[in-house]
């Protein structure tokens, strides 16, 4: 990809690993900020455990408050 081309969407899949998602988002957003990128980040959560799905949504909401781009999170219920 040429350096002038901007990324518009980053998709991340997760399943039953909310703390790993937190770490991945921290790294991703740090990298995006370092290169002045602000794409939409889309998290797809396939967790069967409703508690994990809830924690994942809470993590996404907390990052969305501080990230200047858009972070969206979809779980199994959202996709039905």
Question: How does this structure look, described?
Answer:
It is a single chain. By secondary structure, the protein is an alpha/beta fold. Helices cover 48% and strands 21% of the residues. It has a three-stranded parallel sheet. β1 (9-14), α1 and β2 form a beta-alpha-beta unit.
What is the number of E strands?
3
Largest sheet: 3 strands, parallel
The number of helical runs is 3
Report the span from N to C terminus: 35 Å
Overall pLDDT: 90
Which regions have little confidence, pLDDT < 50, spanning 5+ residues? Answer: none
Structural class: alpha/beta
**Proportion in β-strands:** 15-25%
Helix content: 40-55%
Could you give the order of the helices and strands?
A: EHEHEH
- Order of strands in the sheet with most strands: 1-2-3
What's the gyration radius in Å? 13 Å
Basic shape: elongated
């Amino acid at each position: 990809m040429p350096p002038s081309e901007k990324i518009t969407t980053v998709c991340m899949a997760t399943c039953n690993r909310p703390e790993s998602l937190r770490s991945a988002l921290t790294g991703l957003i740090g990298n995006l900020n370092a290169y002045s990128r602000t794409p939409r980040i889309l998290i797809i959560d396939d967790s069967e455990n409703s508690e994990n799905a809830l924690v994942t949504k809470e993590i996404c909401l907390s990052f969305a408050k501080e990230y200047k781009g858009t972070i969206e999170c979809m779980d199994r219920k959202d996709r039905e």
